[in-house]
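Reading a protein record of the kind used here takes only a little practice. Each token is a code from a learned vocabulary of local backbone shapes. With that in mind, consider the following protein and its fold in token form:
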Amino acid sequence: MSNGAGSGPSGVITRTYKAGSIIYFENDKSEYIYILKSGKVVLTSVKLDSGEEVKEEVREGEFFGVKSALGKYPREETAQTLTNTLVLVLTPADFERLVLRNANVVRKMLRVFSNQLRRIVKMERSVLGEGEIVNPDAELFKIGEYYYKVGDTKHAQYAYKRYMEYYADGEKADMAMKRIRAIDAGEPAPDDIGGPDEGPPSAQPQARPVDRGDDFSLDDQGGPSDMIDFDDSSDDRDSRQVASSTALEDEMDDFLSDDTSGGLDDFSLDDAVSGNTPKDLSGAADASFSRGNYTTALDLYQKIISMNRTSSAEDKKLFEKAHFDAGRCYMEMAKPKEALDMFSRILRSFPDSPYMKLAIYHLGLLFESVNQKDKAITYFNKVLNMTPKDKLNSEALTKIKQLQGK
């Protein structure tokens, strides 16, 4: 079946198969996990309820044989090649190392498992004689509205993006895209959004706690004099770990880092940098941020900052926006010192910036996240008294009341 094999220092085996070859049969026992690098593979299984044969094509970059290998039970399907095919063969230990070090692997695996789970649920409902959920598109959009209303933008963004994934032509598609762009820009929920009673019950969202000590400080005017140097030893250790890449990661980089297969976790507003202008970089950075790829987004925002292009009004706005969004990236990455630096730069250097109010509000969130309530209230009070009055003023008032226990 295999007409060639090779392995590198990591023990990862590369195998080639001719068209029509069987990689494994149903009920075979094996601990190997496969990744399709090139070619076509089809998985054939039988429905338990009807005996109907089901075929599923594996896309390049996707895993197969994962569940049976990790669960140590026989294969549930037969894997056969449709064309000349190249696969990587991993042991469970290789697979675990790869998952721990490469977020793209996790996304691909979740996409495959999610698709399989949806098929299982659909089959189960069919067997039980149950109909489809009434208006699932409206319910999904309503979930996004609820989370956006209560300030949980991460979950709101997820719901809106899944709406666009499944219902691109739906009644709420235009509004869902509008919400996605608004969240990417750091805008608070509009006044006319549906009330919290229209979504699932949830506790009031709080800023992400970060245990970095009680000496996190910035003077009340936003100046640099009280900035504190944190212990960066943990960050240095993380950097050293990232730098020591394995041979397995090197083997995977050529196609896992360039995911063009699309699907559940690949939806974005702009999936690639189409040029090197601040506008191009900002679009790609925003798309990465909306997907939760904060490291990639931060690199792109930092590149805009390093260009220091402020000659035109558009470039100047993007330059200031990059500072604000870099701060948001650092907050998501639980790095308050770096976030503090970015937001305070806006206060010091761009007093007329359209991002000034948002930066001050996020400074309040930052101090709240390190349990410095008094400083957080100071910054939320600044937002409360700023004009023009908008939704952010109301959000600041809500935060003040929460922190004061009212």
In short: The beta strands are 2-7, 13-17, 22-24, 33-38, 41-46, 53-58, 63-64, 78-81, 85-90. The chain has three domains: 2-127, 136-198, 233-240+261-403. The chain has 15 helices and nine strands.
